[in-house]
Amino acid sequence: MGVSSDTVEKSDLQRPLVDPTNSDPKPPKDVGLESVLTDSSLSCRRRVYLGACIELKVLFRLALPAILVYLVNSGMSISARIFSGHLGGQELAAASLGNSCFFLVYGLMLGMGSAVETLCGQAYGAQRFDMLGTYLQRATIVLALVGLPMTVLYTFSYPILLMLGEPKSVSYKASLYIAGLLPQIFAYAVNFTAQKFLQAQSVVIPSAYISGAALLLQILLTWFAVNVMGMGLIGIACVLTVSWWVMVVAQTLYITCNERFKHTWTGLSSRSFQGLWSFFKLSVGSAVMICLEMWYSQILVLLAGLLEEPALSLDCLSICMAVSALSFMVSVGFNAAASIRTSNELGAGNPKSALFSTWTATFVSFMISVGEALVLMASRDYISYIFTSDADVAKAVSDLCPYLAVTVILNGIQPVLSGVAVGCGWQTFVAYVNVGCYYVVGIPIGCVLGFTFNLQAKGIWTGMIGGTLMQTLILLYVTYRTDWDKEVEKAKKRLDMWDDKKDAVQN
Prior knowledge:
Number of helices: 18
Strand content: under 5%
Oligomer: single chain
Shape: globular
């Protein structure tokens, strides 16, 4: 099994990279990225050109299926809400409330699963293939153990919702909906770790196919459960859970029964029970990093309900958040690609390739986000009519579109740099950055501008921009100042420690 298309072979360094008689040379398919970037016989411009030809092909091959996976996963939750809305207003409110509550464990599991990206990606780059299966099992055990107290917590969702002041009838229906989702917690534990295990090996297209098939199955089964069997809200929740478990079973079978992974999956091992505490600590840093980002926008939406015209502000911000989330999915795909490429190259001992991959992914995502922002500004007077026919809401959205465009551009950079952080194992550091930028700077600024200076929704959104901008600048500076040779050494030490079964993880 090869590491990647960029793996450096000794023969690459001995053969000429360019035919001197060719006026428009193209990089040979068997030339590694590191060998191109370190070839002093080429000019800087030519090295960048040849490196870009190699890297862009790999980048888009990883990013596009990842974008589809995240869009489909979001689509499953959205489709459940659509079916609930056809049952009635209270059912829609209950499903929305239940999904919002379940967003906590979704973010927690997704964040903890991202630790697998760091370890599996670096192990794969270092060709320590047997360690990937151990990391997968260890991560699944840790996430399943974390899922136990979360299951107990959600079992008492009804009294908790009542304590939070939610209406009794909606809380009761939401608690029934949540009860149908409880087995989904453990589906997250397996699905996210298996997904990261595959991504670390640059295997992303099968996950896209599996997710797409699960979405179609969910829509068909939900229609049958609601319209034929009359199961109502609990049927919608149970079908959503079944769909997640279908993805889990499909990915598990794909990994365990495929000869492609005979070196990275060697079966169940007792080694997976060693070092659980160390893996938990690394996972917590990842979870905090992801959750703080996810909760940030949700808190700002809650603040909008306290403004002078809460209905208009909530409608306006909800539409803008939906548009922002859609564009964010593109950046999340490049986040996954950047994480894979960075961790693989660090594990392979290729510092220049890791550096080049980082800035290539950031630049491409940034250019795409600029294009999205221009389209948004050109359609600012019409985009809200996709969601509503209210003229006042349309005008409010149009006024907020310049702020939204800035957010879209920042979201083209920040998630990619977060992916680089995961690839390098900087999760704990980024978690501290998120706390400071979002909750010490962004939310207070939003409150002051929105309430004290009476800028309403624009003030709250300006606070969000301020926090995201500060975080982006810090990550840009840290990435720019990174000593990639030292990161290669850190990756090697991390893998050595885990390979020796020591209960320590270096970040």
